[in-house]
Amino acid sequence: MGSYEYDTQQTNPTGKSNHAATDVADTEEVKKLKTQYKNELKTLQELFEDWTEADLLFALQEASGDLDNTIARISQ
């Protein structure tokens, strides 16, 4: 298996992005992914507390929703 690199966003203590402007399309996509991967997201949040919700959702999306594959990729 190759290495898996995922660019995480920096967040402030409230968990919100430090970016001044949030892209509306990204927000809508995050909402859609949150609905689609609700159960998987809970597991990932417990395992990877330092990751933002959006980063976990996009990692899940890149792994086609495969929880085990997502965990393996993040852990590498």
From TrEMBL:
Q: Alphabetically, which GO biological process terms does the record hold?
A: DNA repair
Going by the UniProt record, its keywords in alphabetical order are: Chromosome, Coiled coil, Cytoplasm, DNA damage, DNA repair, DNA-binding, Nucleus, Telomere, Ubl conjugation, Ubl conjugation pathway
Write out the similarity annotation: Belongs to the DEF1 family.
**Cell location:** Chromosome, Telomere; Cytoplasm; Nucleus
Q: Which residues form a coiled coil?
A: 27-54
Matching InterPro entries, A to Z?
A: CUE, DEF1_CUE
The name this protein carries in UniProt is: RNA polymerase II degradation factor 1
List cellular component terms (GO).
chromosome, telomeric region; cytoplasm; nucleus
Location (main, coarse):
nucleus
Start and end residues of each stretch annotated as Disordered: 1-23
Question: Which intervals hold domain CUE?
Answer: 36-76
* Statement: the UniProt record of this protein carries the keyword Ion transport: no
- Polar residues bias spans: 1-20
A molecular-function term among this protein's GO annotations = ubiquitin binding
A Pfam family this chain is assigned to: CUE
